[in-house]
Fold:
Amino acid sequence: MEEISAGKLLGRFDFLTERPSLDWPAVNCPPERLLEFLGILKEEEHFDMLMDVAGVDWLDAPIRFSVVYHVYSTSGHSYVRIAVDCPDNENPEVPSVTEIWPGANWHERETFDMFGIRFAGHPDLTRILMWEGYPYYPLRKDFPLAGIETDLPAPDVAEETQARVKAAPMMGGPFRSTPEGPMSKSEPRGEDESWTEQSEKPV
Amino acid sequence: MTTTEYSYDSKVEGDIVVSRADAVINWVRSHSVWPMPMGLACCAIELMATGASRFDISRFGMEVMRFSPRQSDCMIVAGTVTYKMAEVVRRIYDQMAEPKWVVAMGACASTGGMYRSYAVLQGVDRIVPVDVYVSGCPPRPEALLDGMIKLQEKIRRDRSLRNLFTA
Structure:
């Protein structure tokens, strides 16, 4: 079987643009041509397994949200990475690929749960990790790691226990790693923002 | 009180044993704790090891793990309690019959542990009253057994008879 390359894909599909990649071929695809492209990729190029669906939040970029798909060929033993930019920053939406790979179902639910990216045509687009009714999308860049105070999912339990969802104490953390330098310099270190749910986070 | 005060001496007492009601009730309760394994994360693996033959929790009369809260006395919260799961933990606790005890096993159940995060309850004591906290990540079975022995000591100090009439 002929090995797939970004150049081959770009030559065949004129709507794709090349995407920088250190390992496997990677392309950008416009959302309106996504299903067409991925359908052909699966049926004709035998990329039969969807390994991952991930969201990216670029925060201040003109296009805020992207969705990244990793597809794998079990016969060719190679990956292709496809990124789709969501056109609307307020209500990001891309087409669902569950019709092509049924395994995308939970991946897309998780991406929706964490980033608030909607997948048009998904059979059951509900939250999968957080509870129904949770008001935030935790993996967005403007969401603090410690969380935001809100109500417990069950009102009767909240009333009985007086417990709430509270921001977690960040004493000694959060731990961040820097991409530069040798590993001894770039390993995760606590930034020690030293604030708790009682004391305000220093600006 | 020493043990001889309420042990049976047939030469002196014949068919009668004299003791305090609290001592008898607490003795019975502390040696037949039926745990409810609330296994939520890796601590549950150590909990299973505690139940297995090498550590053998039945030496202390606690081997009857019941997966129904209605038959249990002691909920062992073994693992990370997320806010989504907190509701379930509380409901199961509510279904247990009195008297009941809670053991927070490991760092996560005690304080949230390493999960300083938007999703994790920072200590199960925010939703249920905890009697014994066991440290460790996860605790070894010896540590859990030590915690359970501490719980037995606590049960033995209980004013059970008074609680019967005031509860």
Remarks:
- The beta strands of chain B are 35-39, 74-78, 101-105, 132-134.
- The mean pLDDT of chain B is 88.
